[in-house]
Design goal:
This is Exo-alpha-(1->6)-L-arabinopyranosidase. With 770 residues, the protein is an alpha/beta fold. It is built from 23 helices and 28 strands. The strands form 8 sheets. It has a 6-stranded mixed β-sheet. A hairpin with a 2-residue loop joins strand 27 and strand 28. Helix 14 (377-384) packs parallel to helix 17, helix 15 packs parallel to helix 16 and helix 20 crosses helix 21. It is globular. 56% of the residues are buried. Bound molecules: beta-D-glucopyranose.
């Protein structure tokens, strides 16, 4: 905070002039809020980001990762954290980032990103946790708890439906309301309602034609009224187009400074922006400044003796632990009778791949961190190995085919014999970034040819992957016995890889995203990133495994998949349901036993299927998970709670979550495609009534507990004949009544009588300002 005598939000707001209030709703500079010195209002500093602190040290320039930033621990990217399925670990990473932020007098860290990975082509998927809203919500919440426990505010981003980088500042995500609530808003809802984040960041894109920053449905009706959010809505950097429209829509703070404060003053004077709306935004910005001041008195001008100490060595060790915990062992086939991994740390080893010497461990754009140190995989492997470890680059990072050919032949020659070959492959920096999308899911052709030739020369090949978004392994993985995906693993990448390959650590990750065989198999294939400024989310709620499962499209590796170095059994599944309808809860218990020979961790995944749904629902959805670590032979009874949301769907007509009584299957699995045990349970309760109108069919009237008797009374015996007739029963009652000469006034009485006891239906329009 610049200025250390900040006064309380409530006191200050009433004493400010209209001009001062307007100034507070836009940044003071690229990263600070606006101070009002005469009124004793300090400014606070915000910085990226999700992978580690990016506090810019020089001229800010633009936000896309340009300009220097102070050294900070570069933790694994969100893809890796998401694959850890470990809220405790993610919370600890959040805490460490917050301590580094406190040491740099940063009040708000612009993280976490909880957008859903709608398509694997999104260039920014490395910054997001999962394709699944439950997993994203729980891990995003853990990150926020970690940050805020240290007195640093979070900024949950990018709200909402910001799922593509192409045309990201204009694209309209055209999504139906049920899909928004069940898939694209659910993780935000979880973080907001359980984590009280200091800020939420409104995204660049439009939702159903209205910019997120101006979208009163999103920011007022959903975020504030339905979820009770009372923090600051800050715009993404450059997401405001019109200051008054943004304030009306529900954005409190435009970042960085945008336009002229006079536009806000003029709008108030002209009556197009109610002053009460401006006052609310100012109150929230001042409350944020107060919150920051209370957590870190003095802010940016506090004396050095108040500074937080950072143990960089401990943070590096945490980055190393997290990198191993998020790495997914996709396959580990036997070679010569035993799984290839882990290696013993001795014996002849060859390391191949430029990425082993020049690692890629973080993504490009605004999340880019200036790391405090980098563990290079080749160095770490050499250090871990008893014998000499030769190296062959095998390919160039820019994929120049001439040079690649020569490097490839040299690598293949070196691989002959009975060495174990560790081949590090991955996506070059230019393949994925914030700001643009990918066009395919393949590794560079030179790398594919390399691995194919290597494995033909020597079957003992371990592929270690470095990539932010997924790569499809179809062209090369069948012959390769072991594939370990480390994602973009942060600055401890090298030591983490050495830990994993030698078995000092186990690969703790499970896929947070399905890996398909082909791009054409992906759910949003037909409309990603979109056309003519619109992306139509035609796949609806069928995102990720929800799509592959119902379409029976086998993926290369399913959601939730990942191997360790030991084996587990899950037994004695029991599910106890209590309560009914919208108060239902269920307690799921299962015994997990380590049946292998090494200590390791198992991720219990609980999926729920709705067998009686009146809307199209996914075959199963992840609703709870837990990670347990067990010694060989040890068992633990794991208990997980399912709340009403585990059974609910968003009713598009009633525009609310409903739990439809009926039968559900609760399963535990090793992945979405590998369910190990299932129990069918019944949820009791009153059936969901949708309101009857003149447009409701005779069958719908007949089936309704209130409408049925009303119909019988009004139509007498003919009512029963009509409902049992397969053709007549499908006719809307209003049409039938008209044809039968039934008086319109009587029909309206009937509809009113049915409505008196029914639920209220609304028009179901989502996302547009109304
Ligand atoms: C990104 C945000 C980031 C902001 C500030 C924007 O371009 O979308 O995620 O926090 O810049 O760097």
């Amino acid at each position: 905070m610049a200025g250390n005598d900040s006064v309380g939000a409530g006191d200050a707001a009433g004493r400010l002039t209209l001009e001062q209030k307007a100034s507070l709703t836009s940044g003071g500079d690229f990263w600070h809020t606006q101070p009002v010195e005469e009124a004793g209002i300090a400014s606070i500093l915000m910085s990226d980001g999700p992978t580690g602190l990016r506090k810019q040290s020089g001229e800010p320039g633009v936000s896309l990762g340009m300009g220097q930033s102070v050294p900070a621990t570069c933790f694994p990217t969100a893809t890796s954290l998401g694959s850890s399925w470990d809220p405790d670990l993610v919370r600890r990473v959040g805490e460490a980032i917050a301590r580094e932020a406190r040491a740099e007098r940063v009040s708000v860290v612009l993280a976490p990103g909880v957008n859903i990975k709608r398509s694997p082509l999104c260039g920014r998927n490395f910054e997001y946790l999962s394709e699944d809203p439950h997993l994203s919500g729980e891990l995003g919440l853990a990150f926020v708890h970690g940050l805020q426990s240290q007195g640093v505010g979070a900024s949950v981003k990018h709200f909402a439906a910001n799922n593509a980088e192409t045309d990201r500042m204009r694209l309209s995500a055209d999504v139906d309301e049920r899909t928004l609530h069940e898939i694209y808003l659910a993780a935000f809802e979880r973080v907001v309602t359980a984590g009280d984040p200091w800020t939420v960041m409104a995204s660049y894109n439009k939702i159903n034609g209205t910019y997120a920053t101006e979208n009163a449905w999103l920011l007022r009706e959903v975020l504030r009224d339905a979820w009770g959010f009372d923090g600051v809505v800050v715009s993404d950097w450059g997401a405001v187009h019109d200051r008054a429209a943004a304030l009306r829509g529900g954005t409190d703070l435009a970042m960085p400074p945008f336009g002229d404060d006079d536009t806000v003053v003029d709008a108030v004077l002209a009556g197009t922006l109610p002053e009460s709306v401006l006052d609310e935004a100012v109150r929230r910005v001042l409350a944020l400044v107060d919150r920051a001041e209370a957590a870190a008195p003095g802010g940016e001008v506090a004396s050095d003796s108040d500074a937080v100490d950072v143990d960089h060595a401990a943070h590096h060790a945490l980055a190393r632990e997290a990198a191993a915990a998020g790495s997914v062992l996709l396959k580990n086939d036997p070679v010569g009778g035993a799984p290839l991994l882990p290696l013993s740390g001795s014996g002849a080893l060859l390391v191949v791949g430029e990425l082993a010497r020049t690692p890629r461990f973080q993504g490009s754009g605004s999340s880019r961190v200036n790391p405090t140190q980098v563990d290079v995989p080749l160095d770490a492997l050499r250090e871990a190995w008893a014998d000499d470890v030769p190296f062959e680059p095998g390919y160039t990072l820019d994929g120049s085919s001439e040079e690649d050919r020569a490097l490839r032949s040299a690598a293949v020659e070196a691989a002959r014999g009975n060495r174990t070959v560790v081949c590090v492959l991955g996506l070059p920096e230019s393949y994925e970034s914030e700001g643009y999308d990918r066009t395919h899911l393949d590794l560079p052709p030179g790398q594919v040819e390399l691995v194919q030739e290597l494995v033909a020369a020597n079957p003992r090949v371990v592929v270690v992957l470095a990539n932010g978004g997924i790569v499809t392994p179809v062209a090369w993985s069948r012959e390769v016995p072991a594939v370990l995906d480390t994602w973009l693993a942060g600055q401890a990448v090298g030591s983490a890889i050495a830990d994993l390959l030698t078995g000092r650590a186990e690969p703790g990750g499970r896929l947070a995203e399905t890996i398909p065989f082909r791009l054409e198999d992906t759910p949003a294939y037909l409309d990603f990133p979109g056309h003519l400024g619109h992306s139509r989310y035609g796949e609806g709620v069928f995102v990720g495994y929800r799509y592959y499962d119902v379409k029976h499209i086998p993926p290369a590796f399913p959601f939730g998949h990942g191997l360790g170095y030991t084996t587990f059994a899950q037994s004695d599944l029991s599910v106890e349901v209590t309560g009914s309808g919208e108060d239902v809860t269920a307690t799921v218990s299962v015994t997990v036993t380590n049946t292998g020979g090494r200590t390791g961790s198992e991720t219990v995944q609980v999926y729920v299927s709705d067998l009686d749904a009146p809307v199209a629902r996914p075959a199963r959805e992840l609703k709870a998970f837990a990670k347990v670590r067990l010694d060989p032979g040890a068992s633990e009874r794991v208990t997980l709670e399912l709340g009403p949301r585990a059974f609910a769907y968003w009713h598009p007509g009633l525009r609310r979550w409903v739990v439809e009584p009926g039968t559900f299957t609760v399963s535990i699995g090793a992945s979405s495609a590998d369910l190990r045990r299932s129990v069918t349970v019944t949820v009791e309760g009153d059936p969901i009534r949708t309101p009857l109108t003149a447009e409701s069919t005779v069958a719908e009237w007949g089936a309704d507990p209130v409408g049925g008797p009303l119909l019988a009374t009004a139509f007498g015996e003919r009512g029963a004949t009509l409902t049992s007739n397969p053709i007549a029963s499908e006719v809307p009652l209003g049409v039938l009544a008209g044809l039968a000469g039934f008086p319109r006034a009587k029909l309206e009485v009937l509809v009113d009588a049915a409505r008196d006891t029914g639920d209220t239906e609304t028009d179901g329009t989502a996302g547009a300002t109304r």
